[in-house]
Amino acid sequence: MSKERITITIDKKLLKWLDTQVRSKKFANRSHVLEFLASKGGNK
To answer: Is residue 35 part of a domain?
Structure first.
């Protein structure tokens, strides 16, 4: 799968939550968290 770099603007509280998920080793990086959430949201 080919990936493309993008830029987003998000709330600071959400960014802190993303970083917490990465620090806890649940995800490899911020992009991994966002890809996971986007894939779950697309399945509704």
So the answer is: yes
18 in a domain, yes or no?
yes
Q: State the residue range of the domain holding 20.
A: 12-41
The per-residue pLDDT for range 1-44, each reduced to its tens digit, is 799 999 999 999 999 999 999 999 999 999 999 999 999 986 65
CA 1, 3, 18, 25 torsion: positive or negative? positive
3-state helix, strand, coil in the chain (%, to 5): 55, 0, 45
Residue 11: phi and psi, rounded to 5, are -60, 145
Biggest CA pair distance of the chain: 30
What's the distance, CA 39 to chain centroid?
10
